[in-house]
Every structure is written in structure tokens, then in C-alpha cells.
Design the sequence.
């Protein structure tokens, strides 16, 4: 297994390439991600989106066309790929697989689980591969995703923070959508603080 990462665009959105058994899985290809991805993949098989925000899906369409591979996106965020709801001019893309909340998907022999943690967006998910969480904009190093955007939901975020507190059996490496990596057990130490912050917002 190998993981490559590069922050993309003005929002420095982390694009990841996970390589397992010589198969490349592209996670959250944001703004201007295409040249880097094309340079760093040998056998691309799928594009995976943690959620539908423009800075995570900007290069979906270009890479799908160039590489002829499917897009997997949480079902509740697929409308964002098509409709550019924030008006930033993101090239429209269409999810080939609309992943249901907490669904496990097997992509050419490699299993992922899309853990549903809505709040930042309706479909916001952590993509789990073994002991790795590609956490998108749900959990960051020392922080959480915003809950005040269009299509965000404060109550959903509260419920998601309570839900993540139940994941105490096994530590996970957290690879977030922005900034540096962390671990689940590290971030769980401050979840009660973030619950209070969200409640009081």
C-alpha cells in the first residue's frame, strides 16, 4: 500500500492517491488536480469523493474523461456534482455510484466503507480503508468541518460528533481534506469541546 497526497488549489484541498495491489484510487481530486494525478497513477480504477463541495470534486469530470473510470460519491451530495450550487463554475460531473450512508463498496477487490457523518454537507462521509480514515471535511487535525454553509446542518453535525465518539475500539489514521494528518484517538479527546461549540453556535 502507498499513499500520495498533494494540497490543491487556493483552498489547499488534499488530493490523495491510494495504491493497493497496483491499483490507484483517487480521493477528492480538487482544483487543478489533473496534472498531478496523471503523473502519479499507473493503473487508476476509481475516483472517490468524501463529499460534494467544489474544492473536493473540481477535477472529477476531467479525470473521468481522461482515465475512463467511475466516480463514487455519497448519494446525498451527488446533486452538488451536477448543479454547482455555490456558483464557482465547477465543471459538472455525474456520480456513477451513489453510495448509501455507511455502505461498504468493493472496487476491484478492495473494500471501502463510506461512514456517514452529515453536518458539513448532507452526505459528508469518512472513507474508511482498513485502519485509515480519509476524513474529508468532517474531522481535521485539531478541528472539525464548518456547519454554517449552505446545505450544512447544525443538528446533523451534533449527531455526527456524538456518533464518532462511539468509535473507541480501534485507532485510525486520519487523513483529512485540509492540513496535516492526525489520529482518531487524538481527535476524540476534543470532541466534547466541539459539541459544546456547535451547541452554542
Sequence:
Amino acid at each position: 500500500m502507498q499513499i500520495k497526497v498533494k494540497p490543491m488549489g487556493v483552498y489547499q484541498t488534499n488530493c490523495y492517491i491510494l495504491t493497493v495491489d497496483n491499483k490507484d484510487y483517487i480521493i477528492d481530486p480538487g482544483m487543478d488536480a489533473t496534472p498531478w494525478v496523471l503523473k502519479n497513477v499507473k493503473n487508476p480504477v476509481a475516483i472517490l469523493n468524501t463529499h460534494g463541495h467544489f474544492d473536493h470534486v473540481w477535477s472529477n469530470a476531467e479525470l473521468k474523461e481522461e482515465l475512463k473510470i467511475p466516480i463514487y460519491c455519497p448519494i446525498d451530495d451527488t446533486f452538488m456534482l451536477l448543479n454547482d450550487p455555490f456558483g464557482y463554475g465547477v465543471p459538472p460531473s455525474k456520480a456513477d455510484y451513489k453510495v448509501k450512508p455507511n455502505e461498504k463498496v468493493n472496487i476491484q477487490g478492495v473494500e471501502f466503507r463510506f461512514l456517514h457523518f452529515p453536518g458539513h454537507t448532507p452526505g459528508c462521509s469518512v472513507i474508511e480503508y482498513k485502519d485509515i480514515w480519509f476524513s474529508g471535511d468532517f474531522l481535521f487535525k485539531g478541528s472539525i468541518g464548518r456547519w454554517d454553509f449552505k446545505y450544512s446542518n447544525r443538528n446533523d453535525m451534533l449527531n455526527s460528533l456524538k456518533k464518532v465518539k462511539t468509535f473507541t475500539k480501534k485507532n485510525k489514521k486520519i487523513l483529512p481534506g485540509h492540513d496535516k494528518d492526525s489520529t482518531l484517538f487524538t481527535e476524540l479527546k476534543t470532541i466534547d469541546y466541539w459539541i459544546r461549540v456547535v451547541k452554542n453556535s
